Amino acid sequence: MTKKSSSEVRVGRLRSKVVLLTGIGSGMGRETALLFAREGAIVVGCDIDPATALETARLAAEQGHPIEAVAPVDLTVREQVQGWIEDAAVKHGRIDVLYNNASLPRFAPFAVQSDADYVFTMQNEVDLVWRACQLAWPHLVKAKGNIVNIGSGAGLQGARALPQAAHAAAKGAVLALTRQLAAEGIEVGVRVNSVSPGVMNTAPIQAMYRNLGANAPVAPIVERTITGRPGDPIAVAYAGLYLACDEAQWVTGINIPVDGGAGSIM
């Protein structure tokens, strides 16, 4: 008997659930969109870049598990977020999961980072999570659904070699917001959890290593991981899958670090 590939097998851990997923155009968002579709979800993804969003949709279709790609959606603009969410709710009749993956930080040493870059980072890492959660909340209450927010190891500990003060502040806020929404969600049956990736093998990290090699600011973090290499984005997607599916129905208010052990090993 010929063994089926993972793209041909639908396990169904998210079968028929309507999942709103931000930032599907690349990296962890793309891997999550493809995985969730394979697991039976109706994925309604968005991205600010139409080209990369459509590429993710093409890859999903090739695997036999199509997704809906909506782009461009600027998550810093409330009306655009509301339109994306409401259109999905009208089309599918429900929203079961909101997965806040998208983020766009700017990095600089704390002492010299501009106000503009700080505000930009907060808008593109905290405000967009707040906004999507608030606008999707009534639908999630109706469906007894759940939220998965993507935090970061930066929100849990500092890094001497990486100038990430604005990013750390933003992701720390995401983790705090997750806990508070989990508390408020208990009364209405909405679960809220987060996943905090470490250094993952995404395009920006690849570019950093190409340009700086062993001098990459993330190198001291990566050296502490179980493999000594940046992580595979699919690892984050699998953690998010657990939190999003019914297997985690008694799990709320938690954060899962997916960092290869870097946050625990000095």
TrEMBL record:
Lineage top rank: taxon: Bacteria
A Pfam family assignment: adh_short_C2
InterPro entries, per database record: NAD(P)-bd_dom_sf, SDR_fam
PANTHER family noted in UniProt: EG:BACR7A4.14 PROTEIN-RELATED (PTHR43975:SF2), ZGC:101858 (PTHR43975)
Family, per entry: Belongs to the short-chain dehydrogenases/reductases (SDR) family.
Protein name: DitB
Gene name in the database record: ditB
